[in-house]
Design brief:
Layout lengths: L3 E7 L2 E6 L2 H14 L2 E3 L4 E3 L8 H32 L4 E7 L2 E6 L6 H29 L11 H23 L7 H11 L4 H25 L5 H26 L5 H4 L1 E2 L12 H11 L3 E4 L9 E4 H5 L11 H4 L6 E2 L5 H11 L3 E6 L2 E7 H12 L2
Parallel strand pairs: 2-5, 10-11
Antiparallel strand pairs: 1-2, 3-4, 5-6, 7-12, 8-9, 11-12
Helix pairs in contact: 1-2, 2-3, 2-4, 3-4, 3-5, 5-6, 6-7
Length: 383
């Protein structure tokens, strides 16, 4: 089942909606429609539940406020993307999902000043929108919910108040100095001015995990109300761990090319298209590989790729009569021999595959697997 769907593009950047996004959108619509949270210290009302209007109109206003807020969330991510693109980073897409939004970039610039600017762009946008909306709310307020009939002005101001409050909250939340929040990246950029990028990442991860631990402990002590803090703490903790691992891999593979890691022809094991699947299984046991290019002979064009996963889809009773060419994947995902090894790993992750065919001028010159890359990372990490 496909989970993300492209709904359009902005400035050439594909915009996608994850199906889980519908959960949080519907939840926000319901919360805004039935509640009227009052933050007395700020003099602000969040929700339309206290308005003297029909229920369907409350839900319409709730939907309007929710859509506008998530539009500002989208532009929060676009702010990151526009600044990153100025520094030559390719933006693959922006996806809105249940936990918010994420801009999928090829790689965030490792130069501290650039990383700090890319990371700060999103919170800066959110806080600016929050400040502007707050000014409008206080200049044209206050909102009256006690009048016999709510006015258009009251409804509009409540929408503005919601946009103000949640954008300020979003901006401040993202400045928490913990991965995967923007504040964690800003902190790493600060550390990276005085130490190596990996050491800066490790130090920022320690700070982030400390925040996650404190937040999780407070969430546990305040259950059931603290359940959201507990979930956020878990998200931060594992996000920090993932960022540390991804950074170590990226930095370790710097300067390593695909040709340095690949298994080169003629050592590449290939299988012919007319081989049966049972014969292929015998080859797998003998060579200890789980994926192979399909060729008539080694100098022939690559016709496809077949893996153990493809074989498993065919019942054992039919494998003696089913040939490789009937089940192989004909889409051949390739990379050049002079491409960075880190780019090969990213491409495997994006395509969810375990190996790439290395092509040079239309001819296969080798094959590179995820195992090859992990072995290289482990070897170089010990140097």
């Amino acid at each position: 089942m496909k989970w993300s769907y492209k709904i359009g593009s902005i400035s050439g950047i594909p915009i996608k909606l994850h199906l889980s996004f519908l959960i949080i959108l519907l939840l926000f619509i319901w919360i805004f429609a039935v509640n009227d949270f009052r933050i007395k210290t700020l003099g602000i009302i969040i929700g339309f539940g206290g308005m003297n209007i029909s229920t369907w109109l409350k839900y319409l206003l709730g939907a309007t406020a929710s859509i506008l807020f998530f539009a500002t969330l989208l532009f929060h991510e676009l702010s990151h993307s526009f600044v990153a693109r100025r520094y030559g980073t390719k933006i693959q897409s922006i996806t809105l999902f249940v936990l918010g939004g994420v801009a999928q970039m090829e790689e965030i610039p490792k130069e501290p000043r650039k990383e700090a600017k890319v990371s700060a762009a999103g919170p800066a946008f959110s806080l600016s929108i929050g400040a502007l909306a707050s000014a409008i709310y206080y200049i044209f307020g206050p909102v009256s919910l006690t009048a016999p009939g709510a006015t258009f002005k009251d409804a509009a101001l409540l929408v503005v108040g919601i946009i103000a409050f949640y954008n300020v909250l979003l901006g401040l939340f993202n400045l928490i100095p913990a991965f995967p929040m923007d504040g964690g990246r800003i902190l790493r950029a600060l550390f990276a001015t005085r130490m190596s990028y990996i050491d800066a990442t490790k130090k920022a991860v320690v700070v982030g995990k400390s925040f996650a631990f404190a937040m999780g402990l407070f969430g546990l002590l305040t259950l059931p109300g603290g359940v959201w803090l507990l979930l956020i703490a878990i998200f931060i903790y594992f996000g920090a761990s993932g960022e540390e691992q991804a950074t170590i891999i990226s930095v370790t593979l710097e300067g390593v090319k695909a040709r340095d890691v690949m298994t080169a022809v003629p050592d590449v094991v290939y299988v012919p298209p007319d081989m049966t699947l049972n014969q292929l299984v015998d080859v797998m046991f003998r060579t200890k590989h789980i994926g192979y290019p399909v060729q008539e002979e080694q100098s022939s064009p690559v016709l496809g790729v077949i893996t153990f996963g493809d074989v498993r889809q065919i019942p054992a009773s039919k494998r003696d009569t089913t040939r490789v060419e009937e089940v192989m994947k004909r889409e051949i995902i390739t990379i050049g021999p002079d491409a960075d090894a880190s780019d090969a790993l990213k491409l495997m992750s994006i395509k969810n595959i375990g190996r790439l065919i290395v092509m040079d001028e239309g001819q296969m010159v080798g094959i590179i697997s995820r195992t090859d890359l992990m072995r290289e990372i482990k070897f170089m990490g010990k140097e």
